[in-house]
Specification:
7-stranded mixed β-sheet; 15 strands; binds zinc ion; metal ion binding; alcohol dehydrogenase; metal-binding
Length: 405
């Protein structure tokens, strides 16, 4: 019979005191941390808000979105308590926008509908009688897939989704909910932060769900794509060892030289992807795999190369559990603010939106999920300068010909 001995290190671990909180202490804690914000009644607006502005509107499924120049802007007086009006400066084009536009999910969006579910802008009005708003006029905020939750109907994340069931971010002015708009860390550039609101949180959450620990191997399929290049950086920032799976020399360079992946498997050149990935992870296979492509083959391969009890996570689309909650959104942005993750993107003119929304062009041009900003409402000089600067940096990064999200 073996004798169970207490390992020596146990005595070194400080004892954690577990006790119920003292009620008075707890009340003090609540008073400090949960006190209502000082502005219990808010000023509706100090901004000059036009009656109409631009919006890219889905009018018919499977058709181009219609660019309206005089779409009605909700009047501040019409905002309900808890609603706010956001003047958008950047909005993203995401693969899910195509699914909404083509009605691929069997959730018929109410048309006409302003598309888009990533956007950053400024709060320019807050509904009258809004109490305890966590945001105030002038705050920079992000709008993401989940527009709000009514706490009644919400197991399905499409029922209050920007650009899917409520008017989204492809507009100069968008209605948001003060409790749901996402504060953006000060140090973050609006354009760089916009794709994090969907693509970034999708992969951040996927990696968290993989339960991989520091030093574990994680394989990322589609590592050089719009989702994948963010996944590689988040994984590296979380202390994971990355095996990047994709194809082509430019993607290899991107993944290994720029993003911090340790191993590279080119799925086109490899004679046996399963064997190569297993070997890249020391012969036992990776602890986790994140699939950032919309194609069945990598799933089957991952089932074969993952080590025993390994975890397979798909970030196929953002419906369901793959999008993160508000806490995770804050975490994902903080990691970007720390400079550990940088999204590669291109800033485009407002009227180019259809080029990226049309399914074929979207794939051919490699404008992937969250990989592109379609608009800029700032002065055009600034836009031109920005474009030159950004395109220089990212020209190679998005030269994608594979069928990635
Ligand atoms: Zn998206
Ligand atoms: Zn609901």
């Amino acid at each position: 019979m073996s004798v169970r001995r207490t390992p020596s290190w146990v005595s070194d671990v400080p004892r954690i005191q577990t006790r119920l909180p003292d009620p008075e202490e707890y009340l003090r804690f609540l008073q400090i941390h949960c006190k209502p914000s000082p502005q219990s009644s808010v000023q509706m607006t100090t901004y000059d808000i036009p009656k109409t502005a631009r919006a890219a509107v889905i009018k018919q499924f499977k058709q181009d979105v219609v660019l309206e120049n005089s779409y009605p802007v909700p009047s501040p007086a019409d905002l309900k308590p808890g609603e706010c009006l956001v003047k958008i400066s950047y909005a993203g084009v995401c693969h899910s926008d195509l699914h909404v536009k083509d009605n691929d999910w069997g959730f018929p969006s109410p048309l006409p509908l302003v598309g888009g579910h990533e956007g950053i802008g400024t709060v320019v009005a807050i509904g009258e009688h809004t109490v305890d708003s966590p945001v105030k006029l002038g705050d920079r905020v992000g709008l993401k897939w989940v527009a709000r939750s009514c706490l009644k109907c919400c197991p399905m994340t499409v029922t209050h989704a920007n650009g899917c069931s409520v008017n989204g971010t492809w507009a100069d002015y968008v209605v948001g909910w003060t409790d749901y708009v996402q504060p953006i860390p000060e140090s973050l550039d609006s354009a760089a932060a916009t794709p994090i609101l969907c693509a970034g949180i999708t992969v951040y959450k996927a990696i968290k769900q993989s339960n991989a620990n520091i030093g574990d191997w994680i394989a990322i399929s589609g590592a050089g794509g719009g989702l994948g290049h963010l996944a590689v950086q988040y994984a590296v920032a979380m202390g994971l060892r990355v095996i990047a799976i994709d194809t082509g020399e430019s993607k290899r360079k991107l993944c290994i030289d720029q993003l911090g992946a340790e191993k590279w498997v080119d799925f086109m050149e490899s004679k046996d992807v399963v064997k190569d990935v297993t070997e890249a992870a020391g012969g036992l296979g990776p602890h986790a795999a994140v699939i950032a492509v919309g194609n069945a083959i990598p799933f089957n391969e991952a089932l074969l190369y993952l080590r025993a009890a390994g975890t397979l996570v798909a970030c196929l689309n953002i419906v369901g559990s793959s999008t993160g909650n508000r806490q995770e959104m804050t975490e994902a942005l903080d990691i970007v603010a720390q400079g550990k993750v940088k999204c590669h993107f291109e800033v485009r003119e407002w009227d180019e939106v259809n080029r990226h929304v049309r399914r074929k062009d979207h794939r051919k041009s490699g404008i992937e999920i969250g990989g592109s900003q379609t608009r800029d409402l700032i002065a055009s000089d600034e836009l031109t300068n920005r474009r030159a600067e950004i395109m220089d940096k990212t020209e190679d990064a998005l030269g994608n010909e594979s069928d990635q999200l």
